[in-house]
Amino acid sequence: MASFYSDYFPKDLLSSLSAEVLYIILSYLPAKSLLNVSECNRRLRDLCQNCNSLWKHLCKIDFDADLTVKGSFPSFYILYQLLYKSRIILEDTDYSTFSGYLPDWLYYWSALSTKPPLPGFRNLPAGRTKKTWGLTEEDLTNYQLQSSKSREIVRLERYYSWTDGLEAALCKHQSRQRFHEVALKRCMRSQKQIHKTFPKASRNQRKRAFNKFQNEHRSLKNILSKQKEGSGEFLSYQSPHKIGQDYIEGSYLHKSGIKQLESYIEFAKQLEQGLDIAELTKDIPECVLLVYEKLSPTAHQRFIQAEEFLDVAKEYLERVKRVWRWQNENGTEVRKTFRDCPVVKAHPSYSAYIQTGNESHFKTLKLNFEGLEKLKTWLDENQWIIKLLDSNFISILRGAPLQKSNNEVTAQAIQALRKMVKLFLKTGRRVDFDRILKRLAESARRFLHIHLEYVESLERTLSRD
């Protein structure tokens, strides 16, 4: 079967088709799909970007711009791009014609549409109508006179409808083609403003979309946003996690957009539902973030299904479970006493092991906490020594923070003990543990010797008396 297929069908069937057939196929695609297809190879890129009829049709479908000519623009593909950017900029501004202000060049691009691009554009003041379509008072009067012959006067007292402005412009230029030629000349002069303003407007649009997405998924706010104290339940005021930041900045997910975010959330839900250890629910946000960091370059190129996220998450989750089993190997009470979750997860070797799976990191983690457990157990069994040692010695043995010491000799002894403890927590060797005990014995002997001198001095004082 495979040989039959290779004999009669080329590997790249789409590229083997003639240009005419490809044009017919591409004519059924929306703009976003056309751009994705254009990245397959050079031939498809040239076909997608240089076919004026495709982009002329899309200008009409997507922006109600039924253009007859492209004017001085290189192609209808470039015109489509600028129309798209102008619409994004328009949606990002205060588009109310009664309270907000829009630059003239934004109205010029809007005038290419046969319908108002936004609700606030349905009726425009007379002055704005003149500027938008390049009309004069005489042009409006001529249009009113021609309109009155066939129907009632449509002119409003102070405002004109969008259709009136367009019809008046067509009446002035006497043809749609001539009107488009003049309108595109005005648009040509504003390309720099479009390119300059678009990045910020596009970012604001994605930010609004992400805030809305957050509010629709409040139950997963730990995955979508970083928590801030005092921000309450309003996720839109919280900083997004990396996936949200990448979406807002346009670094990743620009092709799949919100659809990719939805897939990511579905993956997080499935991961939580399939978790067989309830206590590990708090580890889900860290796991899903690690998965995203690994797959984010792929998300830049294509859409990723929730199942693909899950396959990558398995290795991270298995490492989390392995640490959990080690924490509980001696029972729940021992875990709470010596291997408490917040303390274990705060250790750098924990994050390093979860991310890389390197056995050396897991070994370092085990040696550290098993060593501390051994030191604390020995200390609990030898409570008498606590009375003979400086409190900082005890803090080092229990892994607690140190206090400042004014005694220089004591400070040197503390630093020496600290180095010994660090070495033991790295190696776990019996010889290093014995060195710690030897150091403790020396410190205890010094304490006893000093206080013995105090006792003898007291006895001598009593004998003299």
Automatic annotation (TrEMBL):
Signal peptide: none annotated. Gene3D superfamilies: 1.20.1280.50. This is F-box domain-containing protein. Residues 11-58 form the F-box domain. InterPro entries: F-box-like_dom_sf, F-box_dom.
